[in-house]
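OP here, attaching both records as promised.
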Amino acid sequence: MLGLVMTGGGARGAYQAGVLKRIGEIPRVRAQGNPFPIIGGASAGAVNGSAIAAGSDDFAAATEVTAQLWSSLQPSDIFRCDVLSQARNSVTWILDLSFGGVVGGGNAHSLLDARPLRAFLNRHLDCDRIQANIKQGCLYALAISATNYNSGRSYLFIQGKRGHPIWNRSRRVTLATKITVDHICASAAIPLVFQPVKLRTARGTAFFGDGCIRLQQPLSPAIRLGAHKILAIGVRGESPERESENTRQTEPSLAEMMGVLFDVMFLDHLSTDIEHLQRLNQLLGAGQIGQPGLEGCERMLPLRSFLITPSVPLSEVAMQHRLDMPYLIRYFVNSLGRDAASSADLMSYLLFTSPYTSALVDIGYQDAARQIDAIEDFLYAA
C-alpha cells in the first residue's frame, strides 16, 4: 500500500494543498481514484490529510477544493482578529505576567483565539465521509497525531478498516477512534499561539495541542499501518531559510527564537526521518541488517520514499506578504522581533491571508508539475 505523510507548518500547509492539486490532475489518478490508501498527518498536515480522506471517493475533486479553500483563506477563518478580542487577550497576558504571582495566574492560554478554525472546518469538512470511504474501499486508514498536554504523551488517532494495526510505545499512545473536527483542531493547535483543545478519549479527558511537538518519526504511523511506499510533502524550502551563523552577530529576538523552535518542531523531524529511512535502505541493500533467521528479529525490507519540498524559502515569500496580515496581529508579531526580517520565519507560519496562501498553493503546484513524471512513476511502479 502507498502512504501519504504530511506534517505541520501553520499557514505553510497551503504548499501541501498545491502539490496535491497537481497530483490530482494526473490522468491515471483521475481514472483510478485515490492513490493513497494510508494517510498520516499532523498539525496543518492533519487538516489536509483529513480533507483528502473525507474526499477520497473523488480524489481529484477533493484536492481541487482543498487548494481553493487555502487560496481564499482569511485570518478571520482561523483566529479572532477583532480589536476587542485582541485587547482582552493582551490584558489577560499582562495581568498574568505582571500580577499572576499575587492575584493568581494561569488565565492566559494562547496568543490568539483559534475558535473560528473549528467553525471553518465544520462548514467545509464532513468527517462522516471518512468512514463511508473506508467502507467503500477508497481509503484504508487515516492517522493524525496530537500531543496530550496533561501527560506529555504523543497520541495517534486512527480511523481505519476493521483489524488495522494498533500499537503502543513509550510516550506514544495509539487509539482507534472516529476522527472529528475536534481531533483535527487539537492536532493543529500550534503551541502558545492557539489554545489547547479538550478531547474525550478512551483513556479519559485531557487537553491536546499540536501533533508535531513529540512526533519525532512522522513516517512511522504510515509504515506501521502497512505502507510499503511513502510520498511525503514537506514545507521547508530547498535553499537555506536562515542566514549563516557568521553573518548575524546580534542577539536573537524572541521572534527569531520562536521561529527556530517552530522550525525544529515542524520541519526538522520529517527531513531527518527521510534521511534515516534512506540510510536504513542502504544498509538493507548491503545485507548488513535485516537478515532472516535471527531469533527475535522481524524481517526488514526496503521501503521507498519520495519527498517533495518547496523550491523557494517560504519565509522570503512571507516577507513579501507581511503587510496583508491584520494590523494588530502584524504589530504584535513585529514587536517580538527587532525588524520585519527577524520576524519572517514566525510570520510564515501565521500568515493565513489569501495572497500568501494562494502564492504557496501555486509554488506547490509548480514544484509538483516539474516532477510530475517521477511522481507518477513512483505512484504506480510495482
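Record two, same layout:
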Amino acid sequence: MLRIAVPNKGSLSDPTIAMLREAGYRSRRDGGRELVIRDSENDIEFFYLRPRDVAVYVGAGTVDAGITGRDLLLDSGANAREHMALGFAQSTFRYAAPIGTAQTLHDIAGKRVATSYDRLVADHLASQGVSATVVHLDGAVESSVELGIADLVADVVETGSTLRAAGLEVFEAPLLSSEAVLITPQDREVPAGLDTLQRRIHGVMVARTFVLMDFDVPAQHLDAAVAVAPGFEAPTVSPLHDSTWFAVRVLIPREQTNSVMDRLYEIGARAILVTSIHACRI
C-alpha cells in the first residue's frame, strides 16, 4: 500500500485535501482531525503531518512520498527531492528591511535577519557571499525589527501588506518562488504506484486549467477557427448534416475562454458552448 504524507493544517492543507478528493481519493472530512486515512479501494494511505515534518518523513523513507511547500522542503535539509510541482499555494520568499535602509544583499552584511526558515536563508546568504546573523523565530517575523531583535526579515510574501504595515519594504530579487510540490525520497527509486497518483493529480490540474469548448463553424472559416483554437493536441472536427458547416470540439485554457469565444464569433462560429472538465487523462 502506497504511503503518502500530507499537511494537516495551514495554507497547504485545504488545497491538498481538495486536490486529492478531486483525484478520486478518500480524504479528511471538512473540519476533520483524522491523522491517518486508509483508502483500500485505491491501495493508498494518507498520513496527516505538520507541514514542516512532511519532508523529514519522506527523506527518512518512512513514507513513500509527500506533499509540502518547496520552501519547506529546501529548509528542512531532508534527504528528499521535488518530484512534481502542483500549481497551488504559490508565493515568493523575500528579504524586507525598514524603508530606505537596504537595496542589495551587501547592504545587510553584519546585520541580523529574522526568519522562520533558518537553513534556507543561511544557505542563500552563503551562496551570495554575505555574512549576516540569522535569528530564528517561529512566526510573526515582521514584528522583530520594531521589537529590536533583528535589523531585517526574510519571509514568505504574498501581497506584502503585512510587511508594509510594519514599516518594511522588500528588496533584492526573491530568494525563491515556492508552491506546493509532490516530493519523494532522494536516494530511492520512485515508489511503485506513484505513477497512478501522479497521473490523477495531473488530470486534476489539467481539468482546473482547461475547459471544453464546442462550436459550429462554416466550412470556409474552419481553418481560421482552428488557428484561433488549436486545442491541446488538435481539435475534433465533425461534419454536420448541412455539409457547409462543421462542429468543432477543443480544449481551451480557462483564462482565455471569453477572448477565444469573441474571436470565434467574429470569424463566423455559432452555438459556442463551454463545459467545465471534472476529470481527465491527457
